[in-house]
Amino acid sequence: MQKILVTGGAGFIGSNLIEKLVELYPKSEIISIDNYFTGSKKNHINSQNVSYIEEYTCNIDNILAIWSRGWSREKWVPDTIFHLGEFSRIVQSFKDIEICGNSNMRGTFAVLNYWRRNKCKLIYAASSSKFGNDGKDENLSPYAWMKAKNVELIKNFSDWFGLDYAITYFFNVYGPRQILEGEYAAVIGIFQNQYLAGKPLTVVEPGTQRRDFTYVEDIVEGMIKAAEKGSGDGYLLGTGVNHQIIDVAKMFNHEIKMIPERKGERFSGKAYPSKAEKELGWKAKTQLKDYINNWIKNLS
Fold first, then answer.
1. How many angstroms separate the CA atoms of 103 and 109, rounded?
2. CA 100, CA 103: separation in Å to the nearest integer?
3. Residue numbers of the domain that contains 13
4. Which end of the chain is least crowded, N or C, by CB within 10 Å?
């Protein structure tokens, strides 16, 4: 029986990951740790193989020690940790820098210490924001800087303590269970919500900034393949195609409204997923325009 720990398992990507893990590994034992800052109990996967713990990752040692004493005759130790449980928005990291720091620095350090003590495999959900504009390392926001530092720390932990890991990078993920409104919603979710409400789609000026959008099922597949046969850094999970935001809005055939530029966001980003393709046999299957067309079609 595989034992799998997912931090952020009640969030958008984490819940999709757990759903796929249950399907692929029906005899697995999965524990989710989530503080429900952006996660939701509506995202829980209904399976006897999955247990949900509402807590902060900085308390991971105490959480799992109590779990072991209460539910098992022996210490519960995962074979694999999927670490997604971090603060995950660029613009909001300026305003909520303390929350971002507690989650992404203090919380992740605790997860890495747990990894060190238990000698399992770590799959880290890194962010494409680390690469700044066109692949350049730039500290454009507190979020981007912290995520980049965590990648560096994971590599060092591996060198220092002989640990197994794989680092995956996400590029503008969209799909089922994404956040649709509020400060922590991402662009595709925002556009869908505005479309449903009959409101103009708000495009951040100048609109010519480019993004690579990746469907959540493709991201999940990439993470699982990284767990199965990945090693080290550099698994970029993106389509390799980037779109201007104004062109993405036009895919909805809906009214558009321009809004002021926001601090901290890069102008252009695109995945170069050659390592993921070569080592994992992974390639994104879903294209953004197809997803939007099907979503609109299914509304009627």
1. 9
2. 5
3. 3-175+214-239+271-286
4. C
Length of the chain: 300
Q: Is residue 256 part of a domain?
A: no
Q: Is 208 domain-assigned?
A: no
Q: What angle do CA 40, 235, 45 make, to 5 degrees?
A: 25
pLDDT (tens digit per residue) in 181-190: 888 888 999 9
Measured over all CA atoms, what is the biggest interatomic distance in the chain, rounded to whole angstroms? 60
Q: What is the pLDDT of residues 229-240, one digit of tens each?
A: 999 999 999 999
Concatenating the DSSP letter of every residue in 8-75 gives: TTTSHHHHHHHHHHHHH-TT-EEEEEE--SS--GGG----TTEEEEE--GGGHHHHHHHHHHHH-SS-
Residue 246 within a domain = no
Q: What pTM was estimated for this model as a whole? A: 0.93
- Short-list 103, 99, 133, CA closest to 7: 103
Q: How far is 257 from 106, CA to CA, in rounded Å? A: 39
